[in-house]
């Protein structure tokens, strides 16, 4: 497999070569680009646009029991100069009930479950969150409310939370109780059976009415406007920010931002994943562009838009694809393409033992180094653009700061699996024309 990415840091820093596999050899093809030909720069409005999303039920163990967590977070903060934002949520948050009377007040973690339809309980949880968390950005009112046909996904989550060899009927932690039994494989979803639906079909219109009502109720309960991250739909489709924003009206004052969930592949059930497809730059571009109407709808409402949950494949990722250096390179390409589209930040979703997680109790995944690479590259960057090349598999990202380009990221998405006739192809040589005279270069490889 041929995997290559370079980070060229202009005058302020140095030249960082991340040559994961392979090296430039005589006879390689040349890729030409001109240093002064850019696409229109797109503003980056977030000081550290790469964030992390921790699965709700896994959050306590991630922060307390997983020994890698502290150092991994410290590294990302050092790379950026700003700590990564952390979103706590996921399908398990819609199985939780807040208990204000539970002990361990110093270790309690709180979230909001709109699906159960209990505004009073959610209001108590929201009030506790606002009181305890001083750097709170926003509250999400439930998770993926357009997901009404996800039995296979929820079975996977159930088996993760309640292994078949353990007779668990109640999982209680940090003020949250999750209930299940060994015979129940279908957990509640957003449909007519959800308490918030009141026995009626769950539709985009029903959800919009519910979101608007809850936005006002929760905001008034905590005494704050602009505290809700609305939407959080799984992929654009019937449920969309475009439709929701059109229904907001005066409730838009309670919305801090909009969010959506973005996964290019599925690892659920018998689904097949492909690392070659994941890394294909043209497919990354096409996939991200599907979200343009969502971004435009949020911008029209003058609100930020985030990929509040994302990774290589749903259902925790694929063990053959997600924990690879190829997936690490995909994450870099996906991150930068998202920013080019106008997405304000990307939260990569992590679970304790999912293949797509950046780290767990026993190891740090190659994908963590992709996140570190992106974070380092984006430090103090205020605009991003691209430079055209003569090879569509090679993309060059120009990163701007202080009204000039301060870094280039050169990514080659060519994929070689070791089975093609003729052996491994020679790597391409990227030749940059009109490089500024004051560039300082040094080498580093891994």
UniProtKB/TrEMBL annotation:
Q: Enumerate the SUPFAM superfamilies for this protein.
A: (Trans)glycosidases
Q: Which segment of the chain is annotated as a signal peptide?
A: 1-23
Enumerate the UniProt keywords alphabetically: Signal
The answer on whether this UniProt entry bears the keyword Signal reads yes
- InterPro entries this protein is in? GH, GH79_Enzymes
Entry keyword annotation includes Nucleus: no
Name the chain's protein: Beta-glucuronidase C-terminal domain-containing protein
Question: Lineage from the top down?
Answer: Eukaryota, Fungi, Dikarya, Basidiomycota, Pucciniomycotina
């Amino acid at each position: 497999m041929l995997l290559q990415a370079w980070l060229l840091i202009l005058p302020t820093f140095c030249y960082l070569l991340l040559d994961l596999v392979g090296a430039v050899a005589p006879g390689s093809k040349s890729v030409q680009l001109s240093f002064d030909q850019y696409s229109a720069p797109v503003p980056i409005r977030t000081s550290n646009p790469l964030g992390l999303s921790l699965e709700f039920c896994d959050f306590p163990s991630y922060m307390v029991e997983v020994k890698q967590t502290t150092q991994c977070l410290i590294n990302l903060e050092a790379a950026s100069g700003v700590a990564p934002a952390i979103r706590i949520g996921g399908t398990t948050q819609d199985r939780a009930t807040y208990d204000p009377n539970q002990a361990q007040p110093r270790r309690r973690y709180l979230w909001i479950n709109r699906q159960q339809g209990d505004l009073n309980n959610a209001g108590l949880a929201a009030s506790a969150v606002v009181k305890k968390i001083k750097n709170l950005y926003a509250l999400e009112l439930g998770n993926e409310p357009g997901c009404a046909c996800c039995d296979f996904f929820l079975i996977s989550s159930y088996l993760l939370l309640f292994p078949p060899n353990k007779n668990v009927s109640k999982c209680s932690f940090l003020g949250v109780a999750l209930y299940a039994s060994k015979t129940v494989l279908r957990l509640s979803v957003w449909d007519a059976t959800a308490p918030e639906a009141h026995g009626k079909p769950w539709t985009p219109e029903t959800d919009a009415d519910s979101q608007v009502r809850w936005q006002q109720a929760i905001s008034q309960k905590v005494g704050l406007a602009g505290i809700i991250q609305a939407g959080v739909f799984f992929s654009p489709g019937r449920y969309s920010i475009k439709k929701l924003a059109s229904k907001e009206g005066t409730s838009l004052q309670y919305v801090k931002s909009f969010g959506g969930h973005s996964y290019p592949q599925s690892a659920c059930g018998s689904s097949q994943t492909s690392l070659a497809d994941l890394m294909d730059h043209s497919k990354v571009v096409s996939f991200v562009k599907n979200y343009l109407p969502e971004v435009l709808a949020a911008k029209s409402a003058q609100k930020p838009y985030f990929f509040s949950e994302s990774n290589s494949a749903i259902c925790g990722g694929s063990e053959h694809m997600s924990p690879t250096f190829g997936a690490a390179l995909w994450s870099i390409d996906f991150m930068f393409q998202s920013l080019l589209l106008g997405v304000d930040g990307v939260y990569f979703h992590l679970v304790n033992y999912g293949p797509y997680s950046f780290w767990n109790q026993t190891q740090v995944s190659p994908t963590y180094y992709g996140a570190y690479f992106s974070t380092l590259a984006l430090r103090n960057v205020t605009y991003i653009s691209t430079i055209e090349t003569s090879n569509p598999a090679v993309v060059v990202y120009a990163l701007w700061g202080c009204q000039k380009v301060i870094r280039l990221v050169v990514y080659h998405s060519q994929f070689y699996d070791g089975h093609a006739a003729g052996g491994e192809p020679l790597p391409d040589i990227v030749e940059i024309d009109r490089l500024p005279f004051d560039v300082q270069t040094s080498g580093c490889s891994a």
